[in-house]
Write a structure and sequence with these properties.
25% of the residues lie in helices and 25% in strands. With 399 residues, the protein is of the alpha+beta class.
């Protein structure tokens, strides 16, 4: 963990680590990157979040990778005239750290920019369907994919002439991203119904908007949080503070693949007057995350979650549920409760390695289990939001 290079992890001093640029980077952010073609993931999850992985999938134990031994392996490779990054990738792969990854300088700079809410890509999310084929699950408004006329449900068959059948998520991401150069082109093989064609796209620098706020017809304030990138938590707080006095809040965390813990803690501060948000361990040492005081503790609140709700988003969900602050509606979350921190390698590359796991305020482990909602509905159903609003109205949330 790099101290003193960015925003504080949490302002409360009660045993909380402070001053971390990547405070605790949950690999859920990589899930966002994987979906949009931003970053390669050398040791990617066995299934992308959109593919509907089982929340009971086994994950690596904390401290799987010996960081000193990893650095030595990279240094020895460099001394032999070989790639230190490649040696580190092989070391991490053998370790069994499911979420471990190694980036060169350029890739890691791109990763940090992603945390700032920007990325280079083509503006589409993809998932592997039940039939094994890769299909577009989301199109970013105004991005290259939308301008080319691609649609949700279109199937991807090839990237730059290479068939995607049998490729891992990290390989698909790497092909989509290329060298991450704005203006470079990538050719996608696309199928729609019985039609098939090759669609060239020009990669662009895209800014993400992780928080959207809407006032619904019944008075509900819908706050949609797509990822916990820098500044997200404060935007959630401002949205709650600006909401009309009697309006309930529907916090939509579906598909939120995580991000920075500091931002999730700030978002939690919108709904709590201080108190515990989560505990976590780093190499066996216990730490805690606290909310700031002054949040709105009375406003009716429903959190809408699904199998794509991951890591930092699960941390927030667990706090809201355990402390009785919100009714959770939807389907069980992904179950990614492990913690990653960066380790610099001799050649300037960076390894993101699993160092621990977090628990909810009641002590429940998230990793490999996920969070079961209070009210179970198919979060993919178009009526899921309607059901959540019905629950919210029962709490007195409609005006």
């Amino acid at each position: 963990m790099r101290a003193g290079a960015g925003p504080e992890f949490c302002r409360r001093p009660r045993g909380v680590l402070r001053g971390a640029a990547l405070s605790l980077v949950f690999a859920g952010v990589i899930g966002t990157a994987a979906a949009t073609g931003v970053l390669p993931r050398q040791q990617a999850p066995r299934q992308a979040p959109e593919a509907g992985p089982s929340p009971r999938t086994a994950v690596a134990a904390a401290g799987t990778v010996d960081r000193a031994a990893l650095a030595r392996a990279a240094a020895e490779a460099i001394a032999d005239g070989k790639s230190g990054k490649k040696a580190a990738e092989e070391f991490v792969s053998r370790s069994g750290d499911r979420w471990g990854a190694v980036y060169d300088k350029r890739e890691y700079a791109e990763f940090e920019q992603t945390l700032d809410g920007a990325y280079t890509g083509v503006g589409l999310s993809a998932r592997r369907g039940a039939d094994g084929r890769v299909e577009i699950s989301r199109i970013r408004g105004g991005g290259p994919a939308e301008r080319a006329g691609l649609l949700v449900g279109d199937r991807l068959t090839a990237i730059d002439g290479r068939p995607v059948a049998g490729l891992s998520v990290s390989e698909i991401v790497s092909l989509l991203r290329g060298e991450g150069v704005t203006g470079s082109t990538v050719a996608l093989g696309v199928e729609r119904g019985r039609a098939s064609w090759t669609q060239p796209l020009r990669r662009a620098r895209l800014a993400t908007d992780p928080v959207t706020v809407r006032r619904l017809a019944d008075g509900t304030v819908l706050i949609r949080v797509a990822a916990f990138t820098k500044g997200t938590g404060e935007r959630v707080r401002q949205a709650v503070r600006s909401a009309p006095a009697r309006a309930g809040v529907l916090l939509d965390l579906r598909g939120n693949s995580g991000g920075l813990v500091a931002e999730a803690a700030t978002a939690a501060s919108a709904f709590f007057d201080g108190g515990l948000v989560a505990t976590y361990d780093v190499d066996g040492t216990q730490h805690a995350v606290y909310a700031d005081g002054g949040g709105d503790t009375l406003r009716p609140l429903v959190a809408l979650i699904d199998g794509g709700t991951m890591s930092a988003a699960e941390l927030l969900t667990g706090a809201l549920q355990d402390r009785g602050r919100a009714v959770t509606v939807g389907s069980r979350t992904f179950g990614k409760g492990s913690v990653q921190m960066p380790s610099a390698l001799p050649d300037g590359s960076v390894a993101e390695l699993t160092v621990g796991h977090y628990r909810t305020p009641a002590g429940h482990a998230v990793d490999g289990h996920g969070i079961t909602p209070d009210v179970t509905v198919d979060a993919a159903d178009a009526r899921a939001e309607e059901r959540a609003r019905t629950v919210l109205s029962g709490l007195g949330g409609a005006s």
